[in-house]
Amino acid sequence: MSDLESLKSTLLNEIEAAADEAAIEAVRVNALGKKGSVSELLKTLGAMSPEERQTRGAAINVLKNEITERITQRKSALKDAAIAARLAAESVDVSLPVRTSPAELGRIHPITQIVDEISAIFGDMGFSIAEGPDVETDYYNFTALNFPVGHPAREMHDTFFFPADENGERKVLRTHTSPVQVRTMEAQKPPIRIIIPGKTYRQDSDATHSPMFHQVEGLVIDKKANVANLRWVLEEFCKSFFEVDSVTMRFRPSFFPFTEPSFEVDIQCDRSGPVVKFGEGKDWMEILGCGMVHPNVLRFGGIDPDEYQGFAWGMGLDRIAMLKYGMPDLRDFFNADIRWINHYGFRPLDMPTLFGGLSA
Amino acid sequence: MKFTLSWLKDHLETDATLDQICEKLTAIGLEVEDVDDRAAFKPFTIAKIVTAEKHPEADRLKVLGVDKGDGKLIQIVCGAPNARAGLIGALAEPGTYVPGIDVTLGVGKIRGVESHGMMCSEKELMVSDDHNGIIDLPADAPLGTSYAAYAGLDDPVIEINLTPNRPDCTGVYGIARDLAAAGLGTLKTRKAPAFKVEGKTPVEVKLDFASDDTHLCPGFALRLVRGVKNGPSPQWMQKRLTAIGLRPINALVDITNYMTFDQARPLHVFDAAKVAGNLVVRRAKAGEKVLALDTREYELNPANVVIADDKGVESIAGIMGGEHSGCDENTVDVLVESALWDPLNIAKSGREHGIITDARYRFERGVDPEYMVAGLERATELVLELCGGVAAEANVVGYAGYKAKSINFPVSEVKRLTGIDVPAKESRDILVKLGFGVEGSGEQLKVSVPSWRPDVDGKADLVEEVLRIHGVEQVKAQPLDSHGVVNGKILTTLQIRTRAAKRALAARGMGEAVTWSFIPAEHATLFGGGSAALKLSNPIAADMSDMRPSLLPGLLSAAQRNAARGYGDVALFEVSGTYESDRPEGQRRVAGGVRRGTATLAGAGRMWSNGKAGGGKAVDVYDAKADALAVLEACGMPMGNVQIEKGGPDWYHPGRSGTIKMGPKVILGTFGEFHPKALDALDVGGALCGFEVYIDAIPEPKKKATKTKPVLELSPFQAVRRDFAFVVDKSVEAGAIIRAAASADRKLIGAVNVFDIFEGASLGADKKSVAIEVTIQPAERTLTDEDFDGLTKRIIANVEKTTGGTLRA
Q: Which listed CATH number (3.30.70.20, 3.40.50.2300, 3.40.430.10, 3.30.56.10) goes with B2-38+156-187?
């Protein structure tokens, strides 16, 4: 075996034996470094005859190239092995649970969500949103809404009263959102298009009545708003709100002090199953009361009933929430039971829009 | 209001079916609440007992062979004493529901003998209370036919849900008039009563009222009928009264009830023998008592109107008669009263004494004044017909006659308010059919309101009359005019902020609650409320008495309720009203929240990633502070203008709470852990923190001239961070160190953050070390070492000067 072959064999053994990147680097230095065994051989070329250089030189270069390549290969293999070992060592149990985003855990109360849904619908029809105080005067809650003196609603069994003030006047907790109609008429000239969502209060408590509940009311006043327009607004609203292609409504003459003519409105539905379905079925369900604003109410609001006219409607927010989303008991709305809130509530990023749909 | 179909047909000539009538009633505003078509009575068949043998095992039972007309014998075991061969009665076969005993029959075995049904008593069929034996029909009763049809029990009962504005429809006649106007038949005319009158009514009536009180009794008519025989009323009358849920008493009383429902004309009958002297109609005297027909004694007062004789009160006017002068089978001479009363007074007195009667129901809605005398005439006729006797001339006092309201009615109002075209002639015809007087022709009518329609006042009321009879369903939807523009923002700043606050808090993992606006008085007082003006006079429950001054007591109680159910780590918020006064501006818009247990932003409960055996961190003042600031940011509050002061209202822990302010006066909110005494008083416990932000205190955003954002200036020079630690007195607030450091160079210093707080013996007992990281952002050039040295010295000097601390070595 020539010396070159012997060296080659030694180096290849060393390359093979190198266990890590440091060891292979040491092999490289020992062979190809300035003072490496192969480099030392190359240095001998200068002292050789041209003939010798031609044969021996070529052989040394072949050796150098082969060793260089083998070292590179080994280096790469060792690097891969090192990474593989590191990755193996860093492996964790990805089945361990992680925290849920707070934005997924939090909940919006159905009433808030419903108000947003309704605002989206009526905003599209050019309505704005009006609000008013919960603690009202007798004037705004009753008198200006054409409730006659002695009307049963003015009695203690129906309405929450506060003690009489020095003038003998007793404030009330508003029994409906309608006082805001008159407050709006006083503050704003027609045309008026508003909806009024808010808290209302009555002396009543059972499975379908709560001493505190929510209503939404609508008011349109201009020079031509009529029953036909009222019907259109309510049909469009119900279609949008219940997210069905069509609804069938039935207007029945009825009576409210603040509207004339007055109607109760039934919506056709299917009540045969556990959940009420709208847009189908053969049953009727009363859903709201409405009518043309009573001339006396317009007068109380400072509006001439022979020049202007309009309509109003009102319905229970909690009730339509129950109809759409299926909560069985009104009282649960006010219990703050986190299990109920989590179940019936809405995710904070689920914002009702018309372009994205009211509900998910 | 209940009536039967045959009763309606007494007044309405019609071929319409029950369904058509009910549909029309609802369509014209007389909403049908319930129809009992009496199908329950259909299965009962007239059958004859052919054989009746003694039961082999029981002395009191018989085994019957019953024939229902087909000659076959049905075996029935029967215990009725009158069961006998030859009796014709009402048979119920297996499968039949028997209403009087609320049982569906099956094939039974009684003492070993099979029984295939039963022969019914009147009580079992709810015809009467008679349960002494089974129904015993005349020999000519047709076997095999329906007992209900034979006995007149198949008359459908209709119940309408009457709106309070329609007193005329508290009588069947008024309902018939409406239906006739709506084209469902012809109203039969009421024939004028004709009877002979002999002598005068000897009892005089005095209306004893002050001149401003005469409205309390606008008319009173009284007639004596002598020599009556007061037995049971006839079957047809009893059946109708029973069908609508009234109990027949005797003919005289039944006549008053019948007139109440037939003609909406309540009446009263006195036994003349029991009335002493003349009658006086007056206000009751304080403390005056009367034993009423319901056998209860009522103590009256001057707000009530009574009819009294020489001995005292005989009747509570318009509401209920007195027991003393009531009519029974011994009554020979009867005084029949038909009067008018003030609706408001009747409603008030009725409510005051808790008396609900059919008379009150009508008088508080308004009884037709023009039918006062006519009603007495009709009642007299019925008395003479059913009880015999001789009628005396009536005494009528106080009635001034009816003055009809007159309304100028352009028929174009119908189109203006409803959007539909109803021909002028049709509008006119409808009003005439409803009994309105109509003058003029064409477009401009002068309409006078009939005496039975006190609800009609103006044009809009007439539009309603035309519309409901013409048909509300004729109105088809017409789009509201579009504004012709893309709709812009519709929410006010407060509405936008309310919404933003809710979404921001929910996005922080909190659940939105809606709690009561009224809370227990002691909770209200504890949280700064409890004023007399905000206490309900008539709370629904003792612990729902005071308008809340704060959202926190309700939320804390709610958190506690959840904890009691096993959900102690709970984060709740509410954005709603609190009440500082009873004026509109006293209602604040507040965002409030409570976190309990370990319900922090990161998440509640134990978690492997928390380390330390997963223990969850209990909520504290800083969780509440972060929530409060998040609300302010969501509402667009410029946070540079916000200051935090230590301490808050009394219900907070004084050392672990803060007040968020803008300038020296405006309080934007409060946050913190709670005072142990407050928690004790609310009866809540556990780790708790909370906050309130007054959304309505946040200033309106500045109006900007443009939506364009300011130009973004990015520094090309690298930002540098430098750390400092200062040893200061424990009482020094970190906020002061931050402000001092930042003020060293407002241009260069971008941010100052506290990254470590250390307290230890090495520093001294009352000292702490606060470590800050200052971000320096050069804008114009790279800073030199000299620049940094200078800035560093200024930062240290500023902090040392303002806090009295020293740079930590």
A: 3.30.56.10
